[in-house]
Structure to design on (330 residues):
């Protein structure tokens, strides 16, 4: 198969490209390198640097790259905090970018797309675990734009026959076993890479954002899912569309919740070092508990997450971070 990966130089995009190439697929990447890294681009992928908001650029790639079977779309801004400070940046990149992309895909007769969505589409959940049919009421601009992107695919599908799979990830983490690629955000806001900055000597202590939540130890509970399991789900979703199945939405998580304190304890075990903790105020907009039901992805896509042990997941992240304390710059 020939797969176009938008955002293939980013964290989850680059891991998906590695897995696709490992399976012998032909991969073309578009990435504007705003948050992606050229070092994360797989050497066997064909790379085009450019922005999906630029119709001429997208058209030129699609004119050049004949016979694309399906598209996987990761190209978006994805920081919850930033999306609240600069909402229009998110509307511009995530929504305007996807609109231009869809215009070009329709014009080129490409009708299958797998989309990187998020648990943030649900907002504050009414119950645990979260199911795909639950209420979607995002509490931040990031989630709002991702939900609007899902709807853009839906209505484009109705009009033009495009079929899509939307994958709503919970907390992506971990790194590729080769040690060549891993998580490298700037600024970093995610819990596991921030914890690992402590044993890496880049941070004095990890702040726990609130210990008065209604959970077993008072800290927030999340569903941590290995980036390679996410990558496998994208590949299965492409297969699902190639087999002619209808558009669909799937949650991707392990279905198990870990509190912030449990994650810190697991990181101490995985690194063999003690990790200093300091208490901080709650972070605005953080739901107490987010856990996925991924039964649908298991039943329909045949997805089997292989990395369900939090200590093992953190060990794979540590294998990356200890050798790349400054991300791809080291
Ligand atoms: N946390 C801390 N200290 C830190 C950083 C995080 O205590 O220094 C806590 C947060 O309050 C939260 C948990 O660790 O309870 C996880 O936080 P992350 O920022 O790693 O992840 P989120 O759950 O906030 O965000 C994730 C994805 C987003 C997605 C969101 C859906 O990273 O892309 O889930 O709600 F939008």
């Amino acid at each position: 198969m020939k797969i176009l990966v938008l955002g293939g130089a980013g964290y989850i995009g680059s891991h998906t490209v590695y897995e696709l190439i490992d399976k012998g697929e032909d991969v073309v990447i578009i990435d504007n390198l705003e948050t992606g890294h050229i070092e994360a681009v797989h050497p066997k992928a064909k790379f085009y640097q450019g922005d999906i908001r630029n119709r001429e650029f997208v058209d030129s790639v699609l004119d050049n790259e004949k016979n694309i079977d399906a598209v996987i779309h990761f190209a978006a801004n994805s920081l919850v905090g930033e999306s609240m400070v600069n909402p229009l940046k998110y509307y511009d990149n995530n929504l305007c970018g996807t609109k231009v992309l869809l215009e070009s895909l329709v014009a080129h007769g490409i009708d299958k797309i797998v989309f990187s969505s998020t648990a943030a589409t649900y907002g504050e959940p009414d119950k645990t675990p979260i199911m795909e049919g639950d209420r979607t009421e995002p509490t931040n601009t990031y989630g709002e734009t991702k939900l609007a992107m899902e709807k853009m695919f839906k209505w484009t599908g109705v009009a033009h026959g495009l079929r899509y799979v939307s994958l709503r990830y919970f907390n992506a983490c971990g790194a590729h076993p080769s040690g060549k690629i891993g998580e490298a955000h700037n600024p970093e806001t995610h819990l596991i890479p921030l914890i690992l900055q402590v044993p890496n000597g880049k941070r004095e202590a990890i702040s726990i954002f609130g210990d008065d939540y209604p959970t077993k130890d008072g800290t927030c509970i999340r569903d941590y899912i290995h980036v390679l399991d996410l990558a496998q789900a994208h590949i299965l979703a492409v297969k699902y569309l190639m087999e002619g199945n209808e558009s669909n939405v799937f949650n991707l998580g392990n279905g198990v919740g870990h509190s912030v304190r449990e994650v810190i304890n697991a990181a101490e075990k995985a690194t063999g070092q003690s990790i200093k903790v300091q208490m901080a105020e709650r972070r605005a907009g953080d739901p107490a508990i987010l856990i996925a039901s991924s039964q649908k992805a298991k039943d329909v896509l045949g997805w089997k997450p292989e990395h369900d042990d939090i200590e093992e997941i953190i060990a794979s992240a540590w294998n990356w971070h200890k050798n790349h304390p400054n991300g791809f710059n080291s």
In short: The chain is about 35% helix and 15% strand. Residues 78, 80, 118-120, 142-143, 171, 189-191, 194, 206-209, 220, 222, 260, 283, 286, 290 surround UFG (CB under 6 Å).
